């Protein structure tokens, strides 16, 4: 899906399927954009630093607790949009 359908709009239920578990890709949403974090080692098994789980909207955590800036997000593959 990544790269081919970046205009795809994920619902909350659809995004939850991309939790990085059991061979599923790992996606997170931040500010309405869905990013693919599957190939980033820090997201092993769909979890990152015991703070956030793939398949969720991570906007609040990203804005309040993440040490990453927007340059980090810009380096991630896009998977679609989140509404």
TrEMBL record:
InterPro entries: Cyt_B5-like_heme/steroid-bd, Cyt_B5-like_heme/steroid_sf. This is Cytochrome B5.
């Amino acid at each position: 899906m990544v790269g081919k359908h970046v205009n795809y709009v994920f619902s909350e239920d659809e995004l939850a399927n991309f939790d990085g578990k059991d061979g599923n890709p790992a996606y997170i949403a931040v500010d309405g954009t869905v990013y693919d974090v599957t190939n980033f080692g820090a997201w092993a098994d769909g979890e990152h630093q015991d703070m956030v789980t793939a398949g969720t909207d991570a906007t609040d955590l990203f804005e309040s607790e993440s040490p990453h800036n927007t340059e980090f997000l810009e380096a991630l593959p896009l998977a679609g949009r989140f509404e």
